[in-house]
Every structure is written in structure tokens, then in C-alpha cells.
Design a protein that fits this description.
The chain is α+β, with helices and mostly antiparallel strands and 344 residues long. The chain has helices at residues 6-21, 54-71, 75-80, 100-107, 143-149, 191-196, 219-222, 269-279, 281-284, 304-312, 330-341, and strands at 36-39, 42-45, 84-85, 94-98, 118-124, 127-137, 158-165, 200-212. The protein has an 8-stranded antiparallel β-sheet with strand order 1-2-7-8-6-5-4-3. The two termini are 35 Å apart. Bound molecules: heme C. Heme C is lined by residues 252-254, 259, 279-280, 282-284, 293-295, 297, 302, 307, 310-311, 318, 321-324, 326, 336, 340. Heme C binds next to helix 9, helix 10 and helix 11.
């Protein structure tokens, strides 16, 4: 993968260093039943339907993140309070300043919104500006624990996975994009391939992380996985109106009154969220918003039967539709229809 632009390349380098040079904290169990999707080097939670209290919780989180940023408006203020730059000596477009005590608190279970693990500063022409905070959880956290911290309906918890640390003496060209083999941007993603290449495989690097950018005016960006980055832009991001700001809705290419219904059983939206993440989100975006290759489904008032029709017969109305026929069974169809029709 080529990296275009200086920032992108620097970010890749960060990932590389992360992947190959740091002490690793984890040999923890991989799944613990948390609904996630995976891609190379990254595991991300699925955007679940919101519980009634999630909206209020979202507002609390945003308010706390703003409070913390007001306490540490500059890097100097953060350093005076004991925050340390992650990867000292390497200048990055976005810097993490980490508080070891707060990191330990979060790791050992004492979660406090006023004690994020890291402060995020963006490099601008006028210096480093605070843009957000990062909360964390240990790899032993289960779904209920992640939800208690930041609900899965609001943000995307993620962790770095499948790291192949290079053997010593590996040429730098094999560690850096565009032709990296090792590290979190490398082409090696499995234990067997890593061992065959003489590297050391780490299934999980660090723990669960989640970024919050409370001052973004576009609510979709408040919970972005990777702000300003292109690594994960194709997932789309959203916050389902947590800040109270309605998200502009541009309508569907096939208008609702032109889309027939298919009889479909009642489904479970939670299971549907997982079906959606695995089959639909790459085009339609996380939570059906801001997808790179397909219209916004959230807020569309689609009936479950209309979703089912589109999934079963994507080319019935528009023979040139790029939407593929997906091999879902009837249960999955009912569940995903329930999930999509409930997206607000
Ligand atoms: C490869 C990309 C892609 C995938 C994967 C995909 N879609 Fe779509 N989908 C589209 C596109 C593009 C459209 C726009 C309508 C068209 O071009 O026919 C669309 C339209 C829709 C519509 C609305 C039709 C309308 O305009 O009224 C629904 C509902 C829908 N998709 C549901 C789903 C569901 C549910 C899944 C997963 C099971 C899914 N899609 C997977 C690309 C995709």
C-alpha cells in the first residue's frame, strides 16, 4: 500500500514503530464474546443499537472530555502534570500524551471519565493544539465493561492485532510502507507467516482504546476511530445524534415509495448489528452512515420488509445497482432488516 502525503506516511511510521519496537502487554484472550469485526491488524467493536440511556451517557462523555482538555490546554500543562509523549523523539501529526497513573487506573478497573489515558494533540502551524482524549480498557474487559465506559452504540472500541515484530537486522524497507512486511502496517498478518519470516507474532498489542474528539462540529467525527486519517476512513463514522445535532439526510437513490417489501420475520437488532458489520458496513458505513460506497441508511425510515427486498433482490429496481446479492440465511436477513429499519 503506498502512503500519500507526509502525514499519512508519518502515521504509517507510528504504526510500524508501535508494531515492532514496543513492549507488548498482552497475551490476553482474543474475543471474550465482544461483537467485533476484524481487518488486517485491527479489531473493532460493532456499532450496536442504542440503549435508552446511551444518549445521555454520550453527552456526559463529551462534557468530561471537554473538561479535561480545558485543564490541559497545552502540551506544557500536560507535561507539568506528568503526561509523557508517546514515542518521544518522533514527531507525529497527532501526538498522544499519556498519564501512566490514569492508564493504570483504567487498566485495573477504576474507570473515570475525568482521567483519560491520553490527551490528543494535533500538530498545526501554530504548534500542538488539543483535539481530544483517549480512553482505554484492559483486554480482560467484557462487553458490559466496555459499554459501561463508552457504549458500543456510540463509539468504536478498537485494538491493534496481528503484529509481526521483525527479526533483528531486518532491512528498513521491509519495516516501512510502502513495502512493509513487518509491524502493524505490514503485509504479514498471520502467526505462521510471521514465524516463517523469522519474526515474533503478537496477537494483540496493548488493550482496548477509544478516541473522543468532543469539539468536532460534525457529530460523526466526535467518535471517529482515527481522526484525519485515511487508514480507516472507509468505515464511516457516526454518532446517531448524541450531541443533539441532527445529521443531514440526503435520501435514498431508490425512493421509499418505489421500493417494494418482502415478507420477513421479526428479527433481533443486536444480532442484526453483527450481520450488518460483516456484510454491509464496508459500503454503507458504521451504523449505516457516511459509507464510502453506498447511501446513508440511518434515518431513512425503511421498513424491515424493504430492507429484506433490497438484500434479496438488489438489482430488481436498478439492474445496474452495484449492491451485490449477499448470501444471508433467513435468520440473518430478519435480523439485519430489524437492525437497519431501526437506525436513526
Ligand atoms: C458493495 C457495496 C454494498 C454492500 C456490501 C451493500 N450495499 Fe446496500 N447499497 C449499495 C448501493 C450502491 C446502494 C444504492 C442503491 C443502488 O445503487 O441500487 C445500496 C442501497 C441499499 C438500500 C436502499 C435502497 C434504496 O435506495 O432505497 C438498502 C436498504 C441497502 N442497500 C441495504 C443493504 C444491506 C442490509 C446490506 C448488507 C446485508 C447491504 N446493503 C450491502 C451498496 C452496497
Amino acid at each position: 500500500m503506498p502512503c500519500d502525503g507526509e502525514h499519512e506516511c508519518m502515521k504509517r511510521r507510528l504504526c510500524l514503530v508501535l508494531g515492532s519496537a514496543l513492549a507488548l502487554l498482552s497475551a490476553a484472550p482474543q474475543g471474550s464474546g465482544i461483537p467485533t469485526t476484524r481487518e488486517d491488524h485491527m479489531q473493532m467493536t460493532v456499532r450496536l443499537p442504542a440503549a435508552p440511556s446511551d444518549r445521555e451517557r454520550g453527552a456526559e462523555i463529551v462534557a468530561a472530555a471537554r473538561r479535561v482538555m480545558a485543564r490541559f490546554p497545552t502540551v506544557e500543562a500536560a507535561e507539568r502534570a506528568g503526561f509523557k509523549k508517546f514515542l518521544p523523539g518522533i514527531s507525529l501529526p497527532m501526538e498522544h500524551y499519556t498519564n501512566g497513573w490514569w492508564a493504570a487506573e483504567a487498566w485495573f478497573g477504576n474507570f473515570d471519565l475525568d482521567h483519560p489515558t491520553s490527551l490528543l494533540f494535533k500538530r498545526t502551524a501554530s504548534g500542538l493544539t488539543p483535539i481530544g482524549v483517549m480512553y482505554t480498557a484492559s483486554n480482560s474487559a467484557d462487553e458490559a465493561e466496555l459499554n459501561r465506559r463508552i457504549p458500543l452504540s456510540l463509539g468504536t472500541w478498537h485494538r491493534h492485532t496481528d503484529d509481526c515484530a521483525p527479526p533483528s537486522g531486518t532491512p528498513i524497507a521491509e519495516q516501512l510502507p510502502p513495502n512493509a512486511r513487518f509491524g502493524l502496517e505490514g503485509s504479514i498478518t498471520t502467526k505462521s507467516a510471521c514465524e516463517a519470516a523469522g519474526g515474533t507474532f503478537h496477537p494483540i498489542v496493548f488493550g482496548w482504546m477509544i478516541h473522543v474528539y468532543p469539539n468536532e462540529s460534525d457529530p460523526g467525527k466526535i467518535w471517529a476511530v482515527d481522526m484525519g486519517g485515511s487508514m480507516h476512513h472507509h468505515h464511516g463514522e457516526s454518532d446517531a445524534g448524541v450531541t443533539g445535532t441532527p445529521i443531514a439526510y440526503n435520501g435514498l437513490p431508490i425512493p421509499l415509495d418505489k421500493l417494494p417489501s418482502l415478507a420477513v420475520a421479526g428479527g433481533d437488532p443486536r444480532s442484526g448489528a453483527i450481520v450488518f458489520a460483516n456484510n454491509c458496513q464496508s459500503c454503507h458505513g458504521i451504523g449505516g452512515r457516511e459509507g464510502p460506497d453506498a447511501p446513508e441508511l440511518a434515518g431513512s425510515s425503511l421498513a424491515p420488509g424493504q430492507v429484506a427486498f433490497m438484500v434479496r433482490k438488489p438489482r430488481a429496481i436498478d439492474p445496474k445497482s452495484p449492491m451485490p446479492a449477499l448470501p444471508l440465511d433467513d435468520r440473518e436477513l430478519a435480523d439485519v432488516a430489524a437492525f437497519v429499519s431501526g437506525l436513526r
